[in-house]
Structures are given as structure tokens and as C-alpha cells.
Write a structure and sequence with these properties.
This protein has 135 residues and is mainly beta. Helix content is 11%, strand content 53%. The protein has 1 helix and 8 strands; from the N terminus they run H-E-E-E-E-E-E-E-E.
Length: 135
């Protein structure tokens, strides 16, 4: 069920958010590999660029899908200064554990803004789906 939810959420986000891959725009990429340690620690990484965080903090989140497993892998606070930065997200995922091999990552550059109700609301700046090889 988690995979269907993650995939449905990803499809919804991808349809709602145009991807930006140009200089001078918010941007996000996923490196083509990740690592899975003997203790089930998963590490994913890539690069991002964001231009403006004046409306609220920006984060890089990532979800890893392999077979019927899906899990959020960490979250990194972004520095929105227009420069290219590296992000690294790490999480221990033991049940069920990930294995070396092919997997899929959805990374999201997301800003938390204050909604009309006064509560934080996510604003998705960039969504990137990428195939990775877990080592």
C-alpha cells in the first residue's frame, strides 16, 4: 500500500509541478547511485539550487522505492542563495531492508509556507524522479 501511495503522490506532484532545469531557476538532481550499509543505513544524494526562501524554509526530501518497499530517506534543509549545493539524506530502514541493486528515487524541493489557516503548507518547487543503483 505504501508503494501505491508513494507512486500516486509522485504522479500527482509530477503533474502539478513543472520541472526546472535551467540556470537561474530552482533545480534538483539525484545522483545515479546510493548506498545501503550492513546496518541498513541508506544514503541518497544529489544537487539542488533554490533562489528564494523568504516565504518559508525549503527542504530536500527523498523517497526510495525498491520492489514493493517504499520509505522516506531523511530530509535536508536547503540554503537558497542561487548557488548549486549538494544534498545528502540518510536513514536507517530495517523492516524491510533495502538490498544492493536497482531502485527508484523521488526527490522533492519543498517550501513550507504559512497558509490562510496559519498552519504550515507545503509548496512543491521541483520534483525529480530518478533511477539509482544501490551499492
Amino acid at each position: 500500500m505504501r508503494v501505491r501511495l508513494a507512486l500516486a503522490t509522485g504522479a500527482l506532484l509530477a503533474a502539478a509541478v513543472p520541472l526546472a532545469h535551467a540556470e537561474g531557476a530552482d533545480d534538483l538532481s539525484v545522483f545515479g547511485y546510493g548506498t545501503v550499509g550492513k546496518d541498513s543505513t541508506v544514503t541518497l544524494s544529489g544537487t539542488y539550487r533554490c533562489l528564494d526562501d523568504s516565504a518559508g524554509p525549503v527542504f530536500v526530501s527523498s523517497t526510495l522505492v525498491q520492489g514493493d518497499r517504499s520509505a522516506g530517506i531523511g530530509g535536508t534543509r536547503a540554503v537558497c542563495d542561487g548557488h548549486l549545493h549538494e544534498w545528502i539524506n540518510t536513514s536507517v530502514v530495517k523492516d524491510p531492508a533495502y538490498q544492493p541493486g536497482a531502485a527508484q528515487v523521488q526527490a522533492t524541493l519543498m517550501q513550507l509556507t504559512t497558509g490562510a489557516s496559519g498552519l504550515p503548507e507545503p509548496r512543491f518547487l521541483v520534483v525529480e524522479d530518478s533511477a539509482v543503483e544501490l551499492r
